[in-house]
Design goal:
Shape: globular
CATH superfamily: Class I glutamine amidotransferase (GATase) domain
Strand order of the largest sheet: 4-1-5-6-13-12-11-8-9
Number of strands: 13
Number of helices: 7
Number of domains: 1
Helix content: 25-40%
CATH topology: Rossmann fold
Strand content: 15-25%
Largest sheet: 9 strands, mixed
Structural class: alpha/beta
CATH architecture: 3-Layer(aba) Sandwich
Oligomer: single chain
Length: 272
């Protein structure tokens, strides 16, 4: 029997076209961080790469063997039509099969109260399936926005402000930190299961966490698995894996009901 938690990590998917075959893959940072984030309480995790399975029964069997889920991001976007929005020219939707699977994976993980670390588009997906909404294009939807994406340089970083008393405060300490950034969509209204734990200077929600202290669910808009991440970002995975160890050794597994309230889009008003 393993002494390490088993962590499901979603894979990316590209459908077949005239130029290439269908392909499933994953960025190495996800499984490297899962296996490499070790603390006195956690020896690291065993990453289980999960392709976009078609059957819910298969996914459920797999998740029942896991102690946590990393819902990773994508270079592409959630489909705005599924959010009730007209597609913006800057939006490049991910494959339908990928988004469908991510939504099912996120919903099942939430219902099972598995520890969840949701990153980038994964953060947005978890918020949406729990009843939250998204802004499609920060430069037009946010008042006085800062730069969140640079199409030339992958090394763009900006400040975020951590909310005191949150899990982010435990991970990074109080005050400001700098994080990598490569997105143009973001959380608008937060689902009722979550509270804000970090924001950008323009008011964009950069991190959230569960309002229930007994359930570890953290979403971050930046990419702590990336080669552009700071060394401090390892702590996101370390604390997540400690929560997965708690799950493996007998944490609460009571199911929860997901509400799906209707939300009305609004604009973020940045501080003067």
């Amino acid at each position: 029997m393993t002494t390490k938690p088993m962590i499901a990590v979603n894979a990316d998917f590209r459908p077949a076209s005239a130029e290439h075959i269908a392909l499933t893959w994953i960025t190495s940072g996800y499984y490297d961080q899962v296996s490499g984030a070790k603390t006195a309480k956690s020896p690291g995790g065993i990453p289980l790469i999960v392709p976009p399975l078609a059957e819910d029964d298969d996914l459920r069997v797999l998740l029942e063997k896991c102690d946590g889920v990393v819902l990773g991001g994508s270079s592409l976007d959630l489909d705005p039509k599924r959010l009730g929005l007209d597609k913006h020219p800057a939006t490049k939707p991910m494959a339908t099969r990928r988004e469908d699977f991510d939504r099912r994976l996120a919903k099942m993980a939430v219902e099972m109260r598995l520890p969840i670390l949701a990153i980038g588009a994964g953060m947005q997906t978890v918020n949406v399936i729990c009843g939250g909404t998204l802004f499609q294009h920060i430069p037009e939807d946010v008042v006085r926005p800062i730069q969140h994406r640079d199409h030339v340089e992958r090394t763009l970083r900006h400040i975020i402000n951590i909310v005191p008393g949150t899990r982010m405060d435990v991970m990074y300490g109080p005050g400001e930190i700098r994080v990598n950034s490569d997105h143009h969509m973001c959380v608008d209204q937060l689902a009722p299961q979550f509270k804000v734990s970090a924001t950008a200077p323009d008011g964009v929600i950069e991190a959230y966490e569960s309002v229930d202290d007994d359930w570890f669910c953290v979403g971050v808009q930046w990419h702590p698995e990336s080669d552009t991440a700071a060394a401090l970002d390892m702590q996101v995975f370390e604390i997540f894996l400690e929560a997965c160890m708690d799950r493996m050794t007998g944490a609460d597994t009571a199911p929860m009901t997901i509400p799906f309230p209707q939300k009305v889009a609004r604009k973020v008003v940045a501080a003067a």
